[in-house]
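Intended use. Records like the one below are meant for learning the mapping from a protein sequence to its folded structure. Do not use them to infer anything beyond what is encoded.
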Amino acid sequence: MAPGTADCPRHIADDLALIVSELVTNAMLHADGPYALTVALEQGRAGIAVSDGSSAMSGHRGGAQRTEAGGRGLRIVRALGADLFVSRSGPGKQVIAVLTWQP
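Structure written out for the chain above:
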């Protein structure tokens, strides 16, 4: 391993890929752009942050309610053991998932 890099077990990397997919998909389905993805990895911890241009903290674009099947994205993220945080960021918001493991 190169200096300054973090070792991430394969099963954790798989979970992180799924978390990124869920958070990015949620932003694109439920919020206006612009969108941004940031991933930070350190020994025993990873943070995934997805920003969007919607100030609606409900996750619904313009207050519209979802009518199609779905709504499991954040439950999946939590089931994988990630802690979730939502905060205002500029004119929009940022959803952050933090996943920890034993190095």
